[in-house]
Amino acid sequence: MKTKLTKAECSSNLKNVIDALYVLNGKWKLPIVLSLVNSPKRFNELMKDVEGISPKILAQELKHLEQNELVERKVFATTPVSIVYEASEYSETLKDVLRTLSDWGAGHRKKILGR
Amino acid sequence: MKTKLTKAECSSNLKNVIDALYVLNGKWKLPIVLSLVNSPKRFNELMKDVEGISPKILAQELKHLEQNELVERKVFATTPVSIVYEASEYSETLKDVLRTLSDWGAGHRKKILGR
What we know:
Number of helices of chain A: 5
CATH class of chain A: Mainly Alpha
Number of domains of chain A: 1
Distance between the termini of chain A: 27 Å
Order of helices and strands of chain A: HHHHEEH
Strand order of the largest sheet of chain A: 1-2
CATH superfamily of chain A: Winged helix-like DNA-binding domain superfamily/Winged helix DNA-binding domain
CATH architecture of chain A: Orthogonal Bundle
Structural class of chain A: mainly alpha
Shape of chain A: globular
CATH topology of chain A: Arc Repressor Mutant, subunit A
Oligomer: homodimer
Largest interface: A-B, 52 and 53 residues
């Protein structure tokens, strides 16, 4: 039975989802965050983990994620200098979004392949 | 304490999230589904509800959502003919994704405005 929302709840939900997608839009931001939630990584390690992303797009998405405080860029004064990207503490707030998306993706694949 | 995933779990999660975003990508698909989950709507009603979307993009996104069986297009033989879009039963599987995104959007707005 569909639980009916009030008009006000409905429009505030809609605004929240639009706001969330404004920050998280595109097909790469959430996979990058998920990859870093699993372990901090250098640029090239991220390139390998998030299959199909180009260096230019990865650099651009990392900058957006840093601006939204979801990713932190750590510079180590080694020789040569090494840069490691980490999921920020704030990115933990995305845990439920990532879990439900992952569950839905798995279910959708079963539905599509199940035919 | 971050619950560590095994390598296999991590890559399968990543693939699931990438698959989900392949279907749901862009900033309009989920808001359209949410609007229809709340009530079936004609094209112009959807245009009003999902603020900022253009007619061309709405028509395109509705077609993708129909192909992925998330939206149904109902034609009524009135004069003139009337067309109503409805969230499909399958779109209910997106309930958790929509809820967690909505919660995150609300929290993120508080964090950004809270400064």
